[in-house]
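Recap from last week: sequence in, structure out.
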Amino acid sequence: MCQRVANRIAFGKPLAEQGMVQDWIAQSQIEIEQARLLTLKTAWIIDTQGKKAAMNEIAMIKIAVPQVQTNVVNRAIQAFGAAGLSEDFPLASMWAHGRALHIVDGPDEVHKRSLARSVVQQWQPR
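Predicted structure tokens:
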């Protein structure tokens, strides 16, 4: 996306200079870094405390990473315009694959329900 918007001219200037496109790039970078840090934190918990201690974080990854992937690819498709949906670029295929990630290991809603129950349980009196 960044390479494309730096080189694509619209309305007399590179798309990278358009405010909305800058927002897409910034938001994408933020989301990617959040997912990366959650994954690193989860790996650290697994390494130091075991898989069972990281169950909430694993559920969060199963929710967050597919969402980030589809968000970022969707923005890239928007930046590419109609070409983003063509077979000239892998974006449409990437989006379809990312959309499948929302359901292959259970729907996002199942992971959210499981995560919410676990979080609430931590706050219930014993």
